[in-house]
Amino acid sequence: MSWFIRVPSSTSNLGAGFDSIGLALNLYLELAVAKSDKWEFIPTSSCLEGIPSGKDNLVYEIVERVAERHDRINDLTPCRVEMKSDIPLARGLGSSATAIIAGIELANLLLNLDLEQDEKLEIATEIEGHPDNVAPSLLGGCVIGHYDGEVAYTQIPVKGVTFVAIIPNFELKTKDARAVLPNSFSFKESVQASSVANVSVAAICQGNWRLLGEMMKKDHFHQPYRKSLIPHYDDLLHYLNESALGVFLSGAGPTMIAIVDDKNVFTALKKWRSEFPEFEWLSLQVENGGSYVETRKESMIRHDG
Known about the structure:
With 305 residues, the protein is α+β, with helices and mostly antiparallel strands. It has two domains: 2-156 and 288-296, 2-Layer Sandwich (Ribosomal Protein S5, domain 2); 161-284, Alpha-Beta Plaits, CATH 3.30.70.890. It is built from ten helices and eleven strands. The chain has helices spanning 58-69, 95-110, 117-128, 134-139, 174-179, 187-206, 209-217, 223-226, 233-240, 265-275; strands spanning 2-13, 17-35, 40-43, 79-85, 142-147, 151-156, 161-167, 246-249, 256-261, 280-284, 292-296. Strands 1, 2, 3, 4, 5, 6 and 11 form a seven-stranded mixed sheet that branches. Strand 8 and strand 9 (256-261) form a beta hairpin. It starts with a strand and ends in a 9-residue tail after the last strand. It is found in: Cytoplasm. It comes from Gracilibacillus dipsosauri. One of its GO terms (biological process) is threonine biosynthetic process. Residues 201-277 form the GHMP kinase C-terminal domain.
């Protein structure tokens, strides 16, 4: 018996949707799992080189947390886990959220918990602290969520646009990006910031991406503060906004994402890559399927000898 788990990456915040709006993208973390005599995590992608190989791996830590939550820690079976990913680490594309969802899915399989999607989301959000990354990675599509001990969310269909990720060659840790945010807003500032977020949600619901792009320019919550950590932010933002429907900082950064009409993405991307070859440019689509789990009767993990 073995299992295959695939979890899509995510982008979050979408301008003023701080800690509450995210959408799944077609970059993935994949796990090939087989029972073993010890816990072992084997990276098969270059971006995962150097990850913890034993019980200090984040996926195992989540498995253990779910098991403890259900008082089943003694029922866990050790596994050999081959991990493959095309999600850049510490770039604002939800790599840690995919590990959280993968760990929950693995615990659900090993312990036969039969968790409902909402139960998985509750556990993931409790761990992450907010639903904007974990919810899309679990459920797929665009998810707008709220968390105050309980999760409330809605899913919005997305079509007709491509999300072009502009990835620099340096990492930005979430804790560092959080450290530059203000501790509080005045009442007047809060009203202004929330009104921008409200219009942003309405624009997503209507598929009015140009209006969303205008609201992204007016974000008060995080982009004005985090751009100080990204030297190229202002120049690239100005350049991309000439032809993109909208541009935003993905998650905590440093990846920026341009929203482009599907009809124009080929031409725009060709031009952008030639003008800024120092960045990695990825043309991404919304992944509407969420996480995927498959049980296999015969292990696909082969060992020499």
